[in-house]
Design goal:
- A hairpin with a 6-residue loop joins strand 13 and strand 14.
- Strands 2, 3, 7, 8, 9, 10, 16 and 17 form an 8-stranded mixed beta sheet that branches. The protein has a 5-stranded mixed beta sheet with strand order 1-15-11-14-13, with helices on one face.
- Helix 1 packs parallel to helix 9, helix 2 packs across helix 3 and helix 3 packs across helix 9.
- The chain has a domain of 235 residues: FAD/NAD(P)-binding domain (3-Layer(bba) Sandwich).
- The chain has 11 helices and 17 strands.
- It has 457 residues and is α/β, with parallel strands linked by helices.
- It comes from Mesorhizobium muleiense.
Length: 457
């Protein structure tokens, strides 16, 4: 790829042709998640609704099941309710990368919340990943987990220098194996000249997200957690003995309530809905690629990211035969071809050999963004919330869900977390319709174009 003084610049700087929504071409063979091929989400058999429980949990994704498992193993009677099939939301639709990333950088967290909170959050990320990896191993969860590391590509040499300093700080302060990768060594990690070096973190890996959820559901059910699928909670009312939790299947009396909805929070909880904005994230999966091509493009089978605001994340499939690539989707309705084509074009920019690759799957799911951009445990009117994972729920949802369970049980040390503080701020003029998302995405895209033009390539 030529530098900025050349005539040919990446197509991300050029306006892309909009694909019409009428008579759209079929870009991918399937619009369901690739992960569902090996681990389809399914309804659970109907079961009687308990009249009273110690804890009612709203949501049966990673966070809700992790909390329910911890509670049930301590002898609590617990019922979890999901408006869809358990795991049908983000838990089975995500990229399966155990990044545990925080969208705010260290300097911003320090400015907003203080240096003590910033350092605690940095340190907790390491502990949360170790918790997840130990949990997978100790529970013998069959979810294709591999601790292969993550390479993050820099768009220019100035960004590379910043990444190099960050890698050095992670190694020095937290003992994380992390290091800079100069441009001359880049192809040892990823088969492209698109980036100008990058950094590696070896504490990040990949798993099969739908298998992980299925295994988590298996051990949670075995522990005694009652999970009700396709049973939305319609209201939560406080009374003298706890809470009356109304569901589509009837009403349950609960001593405590834990809400673990995230990107699929609905109007039954207007307080939370005003604080969480659902943003579409889309992933494409290529057809099976030749082994020698996969070896050239992804020689170390690492997870991949990049330093753009609207950067892509990508990875090999667990069997090493495909590449999966994801990014933000600014569409708000239907399943148009344009967002899929944008991702395929992005894949072709990174790997020119894949410019015309055929896609087997293209799907989307909602991530929950909010103004603070930090995962959160908080309490409101006696109800405890574990939510706000901002696109990094593979690590944070099990961790925060488990901490919230210990908070309900009054286990001081086990409940301790840097993410237990005030609720996220409400989003002005927002009541559940994210009308402003396309404009926000365009703003990020503009920032990327400016950063690209300014980058020293």
């Amino acid at each position: 790829m030529s530098d900025l003084a050349g005539m040919d610049r990446p197509s991300l700087l050029k306006p892309q042709r909009e694909v019409p929504h009428v008579h759209e071409p079929k870009v991918a063979n399937k619009s369901t998640p690739y992960w569902w091929e090996a681990a389809p989400v399914m309804p659970l058999p109907p079961q009687p609704l308990a009249r009273t429980v110690d804890v009612a949990i709203v949501g049966a994704g990673y966070a809700g099941l992790s909390a329910g498992l911890a509670l049930a193993r301590e002898g609590r009677s617990v019922a979890a309710f999901d408006a869809m099939n358990p795991g049908e939301g983000a838990s089975s639709r995500n990229g399966g990368i155990t990044s545990g990333s925080i969208r705010l950088d260290y300097a911003t967290i320090t400015r907003r919340f203080g240096e003590e909170k910033a350092m605690a959050i940095e340190a907790e990320g390491k502990v949360a990943r170790e918790f997840l990896y130990d949990f997978i191993k100790s529970e013998k969860l069959d979810c294709d987990f591999q601790l292969v590391g993550l390479f993050k590509g820099a768009i220019g040499y100035e960004q590379y220098e910043k990444m190099a300093r960050g890698a050095e700080a992670l190694a020095r302060k937290l003992g994380i194996e992390s290091y800079a990768v100069p441009y001359a060594k880049q192809r040892d990690y990823v088969g492209t000249d698109f980036y100008r070096g990058g950094m590696v973190r070896m504490d990040i890996g990949g798993l099969h997200p739908a298998k992980f959820h299925a295994e988590l559901l298996r051990v949670a059910l075995a522990s005694g957690l009652a999970v009700h699928s396709n049973t939305p909670v319609t209201s939560i009312e406080r009374d003298s003995s706890g809470f009356r939790v109304a569901t589509s299947a009837g009403t349950v009396q609960a001593r405590q309530v834990l809400v673990c909805t995230n990107g699929y929070t609905d109007g039954a909880n207007p307080f939370l809905r005003r604080r969480l904005v659902p943003v579409r994230s889309r992933i494409i999966a290529t057809e099976e690629l030749a082994p020698e091509l996969m070896a050239r493009l992804m020689p170390k089978r690492m997870m991949m990211g990049e330093g753009r605001e609207l950067g892509f994340y990508y990875r090999p499939s667990p069997d090493g035969r495909r590449i999966l690539l994801g990014g933000r989707d600014s569409s708000r309705a239907g399943d148009p071809a344009a967002p899929t084509l944008r991702l395929r074009n992005g894949l072709g920019e990174i790997f020119p050999e894949l410019e015309n690759v055929r896609l087997s799957h293209s799907w989307f799911g909602n991530v929950a963004m909010h103004r603070d951009m930090l995962p959160r445990i908080f309490e409101k009117d006696g109800v405890v919330y574990a939510t706000g994972f901002c696109g990094s729920g593979v690590v944070w949802a099990p961790w925060v869900g488990t901490r919230a369970a210990h908070k309900l049980m009054g286990h001081g040390e086990q409940a301790r977390t840097a993410f237990d503080f005030r609720p996220p701020a409400a989003v002005p003029f927002y009541r559940g319709n994210p009308w402003f998302i396309p404009a926000v995405i365009k703003g990020y895209a503009l920032q990327d174009r400016i950063a690209w033009w300014r980058a020293s390539r």
